[in-house]
Design the sequence.
């Protein structure tokens, strides 16, 4: 026994999962990344249009055959070019994916003058009309006024020199020439144009029209057709309506010849947008929130 060296066994204890363990951090990072991807998918589904959703579905159903299936090679078309922009700013007016940069009807028409420019436009119209001999004969029957909607030109009927044939929407030659000349003047500005026809309160008697509503509407349309023939662009026409005798120019005498008139208004931007918003609210497809307790009996 004394000839052998003693054997000493030392055991080293290792603490697993202690302070320096990092396996749980990797698992947590993987879980957070998966959750972020999941919420991104939910967000894309929520904001994408039906067309974009169909393109995404087609892409994942057949990623290699999108050219034959009619789908894009990119699941979402962000539009534009992948080239790097030279400007370091966010453009909030970018078009919707797949849309064009062409101006809408509202943007194309709502480019008229506002505010102090109304005075300049009013003075310009007066000078232009006075410089034209064919309009001088109708000077006393033409009134130019600044209104909250814009500059309004009112052509008033004269029993001695009427604008239309009696009881019809046929313009007399002198008034037709006047409107043709006015179209060239209106082309010097870009304001949207509203044309309204008016009659007096006398009951209409004649063939072809049932009442003053039909007559005023046809006369407004007749004026519109001549202005367009004279060069006024179709896109400038914002509204053409007949108001019969509901808005008399001479309220004291509803049967006065002054009430038989054609009004042409060059609208301001703000007035044009107010008119569009009002029309959309009254006649458009937007949903209007009503009182839940409201019933037809309470309204009528």
Sequence:
């Amino acid at each position: 026994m004394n000839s052998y060296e003693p054997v000493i066994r030392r055991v080293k204890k290792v603490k697993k999962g202690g302070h320096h363990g990092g396996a749980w951090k990797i698992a947590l990072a993987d879980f957070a990344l998966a959750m972020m991807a999941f919420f991104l998918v939910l967000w894309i589904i929520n904001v994408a249009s039906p067309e974009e959703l169909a393109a995404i579905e087609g892409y994942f159903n057949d990623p290699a055959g999108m050219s034959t299936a009619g789908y894009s090679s990119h699941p979402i078309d962000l539009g534009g070019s992948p080239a790097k922009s030279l400007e370091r700013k966010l453009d909030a007016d970018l078009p919707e994916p797949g849309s064009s940069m062409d101006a809408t009807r509202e943007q194309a028409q709502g480019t008229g003058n506002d505010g102090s420019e109304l005075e300049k436009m009013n003075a310009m119209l007066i000078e232009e009309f006075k410089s034209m001999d064919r309009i001088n004969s109708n000077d006393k029957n033409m009134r130019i006024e600044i209104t909250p909607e814009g500059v309004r030109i009112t052509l008033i009927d004269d029993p001695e020199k009427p604008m239309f044939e009696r009881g019809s929407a046929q313009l007399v030659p002198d008034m037709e020439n006047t409107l043709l000349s006015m179209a060239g003047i209106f082309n010097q500005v870009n304001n949207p144009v509203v044309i309204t026809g008016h009659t007096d309160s006398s009951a209409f008697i004649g063939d072809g029209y049932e009442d003053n509503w039909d007559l005023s509407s046809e006369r407004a349309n007749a004026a519109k057709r001549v202005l367009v023939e004279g060069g006024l662009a179709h896109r400038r026409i914002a509204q053409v309506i007949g108001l019969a005798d509901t808005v008399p120019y001479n309220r004291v005498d509803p049967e006065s010849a002054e009430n038989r008139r054609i009004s042409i208004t060059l609208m301001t931007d703000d007035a044009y947008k107010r008119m569009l918003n009002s029309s959309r609210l009254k006649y458009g497809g937007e949903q209007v929130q009503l009182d839940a307790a409201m019933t037809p009996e309470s309204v009528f």
